[in-house]
Amino acid sequence: MNSSSFLNMAAIGDFDPLSATIPATKVEITVSCRNLLDRDTFSKSDPICVLYTQGIGNKEWREFGRTEVIDNTLNPEFVRKFILDYFFEERQNLRFDLYDVDSKSTNLSKHDFLGQAYCTLGEIVGSLGSRLEKPLGGIPGKKCGTIIVKAEELSNCRESVMMQFCGNKLDKKDFFGKSDPFLVFYRSNEDGTFTICHKTEVVKNTLNPVWQAFKIPVRALCNGDYDRTIKIEVYDWDRDGSIFADAKDTLQQFKRRATVGSAKRYQEYIRSNHDFIGEFSTSYRELSRGQSQFNVYEVINPKKKGKKKKYLNSGTVTLLSFLVDIEVTFLDYIKGGTQINFTVAIDFTASNGNPAQPTSLHYMSPYQLNAYAMALKAVGEIIQDYDSDKMFPALGFGAKLPPDGRVSHEFALNGNPQNPYCNGIDGVMEAYYQSLKSVQLYGPTNFSPVINHVARYAASVKDGSQYFVLLIITDGVISDMAQTKESIVNASCLPMSIIIVGVGPAEFDAMVELDGDEVRISSRGRYAERDIVQFVPFRDYIDRTGNHILSMARLAKDVLAEIPDQFLSYMRTRGIKPSPAPPPYTPPGHPLQTQI
């Protein structure tokens, strides 16, 4: 088999277009309050809670929903829940406003404001037991009480299903042999469009294929809606049908484009480069009946049906087995108390340019963040929600340090090697700015010391209670490639992930090798146990209109999207189960009020 057709087969079987299009898991938000302000003269307040969310890249608050009104209480336990899509890789800002309802008007300005609280969805799920308690504010000089927000992952988001299909008497498409059939699955969206969610392998030279059983999350198959249409297309694999845009287009580049919305283009590649046999539709509810006469489907080719009066079908596809499995999820571990520890390592090599000059990648403009600061803030502000103490080690590499000018590839940005921890992401930013004033940019660009630094900590906590994420921000070509590959292979069996963000105009070809998406990284004949590195060039995410908030949101979404799966792959291969969530907390002296 020639290399291009091998690449084509691998692409059909291995490329996962779900990275952007799988709906997130859904969480149910429950709200209660304690000691609300009393705005009614002759009775207690009649509170309602209104939830607002923000869109990515803008600051506009939009009303998401309202709870019911509970009469005559300052300690409401609202029954109506808010159901939100949860994305680990996004900063999902929330605002909860409380009002005392005085009439039947839906206009909130007609009611008394009782206070508000801001948080992120990550803060709620990252809190102990996924329970966040915050003081209500918004009325100067008044104690407005507290809000308690709890998050619970919806049960149907945990389900995966194992299915197997076979075909019978499919149309013959190849001139010299039989067809080489494969299936492509699509789930329907709210707007009537379809999104690809799975492809089977190709079964060669048969009209009666039996495809391998495969497992898929129910949320990917139907977004948890059991009656939503699932469309399945049947294709004959064509040896000449490359799904790539051109010869230079790598699987990883195509994947990256897919994460910013080209799943539709991927479908078009399949359709234009492989022979369409036919299609059929079903739903999760129908499939859940299992192997039966209800799950034998006629494969219909609409063009053939329109042309030939005696056309019956292009063969049949039968469901052979259907098995539901309840999966342990990323949020189960977070709810059980697993902490995500974040470390940042910043490139201080001379190739960044003199920080005093506006052309430098480290230049501190009074008007906007530089690329290093943007990457650090974008990733750090999301991960910090999953770390209870909010203390982050911040390292630098490739600089000469005062007072003696020695070169270091693993120095503390705050100048304290015994305690490199900074208080919050703002503390890390401040330490970064201070180091630029005290160190001399030098070289070379060595990654292995900072990887080994985090690996030492990760190696000491392998019980699932902690997971480590290292963010390396760099401008250029790596100098210690062999040592870095060795460090990554060693770290691949530890509870850690590495994110590398390339800033500036350099060629980052070597980084692609570290990423391991196409070829698993190896060192001296040893392969990495799992893929733990994600590399992206920041320039791919910069918004052309100059909206830096949007640039940062795009970057964070892409680099953090793989973390939950990398986290789960470590826990599962080690057989580590999530700890049980702590019992619900009832503060002393706060008996629950009877509600009307």
Automatic annotation (TrEMBL):
Region of interest (Disordered), residue spans: 577-596
Transmembrane helix recorded as keyword: no
GO-annotated cellular components: plasma membrane
Domain C2, chain residue ranges per copy: 3-136, 143-297
Residue span, VWFA domain: 341-545
Gene3D superfamilies attached to this UniProt entry: C2 domain (2.60.40.150)
Protein name: C2 domain-containing protein
Organism of derivation: Pygocentrus nattereri
Gene: CPNE8
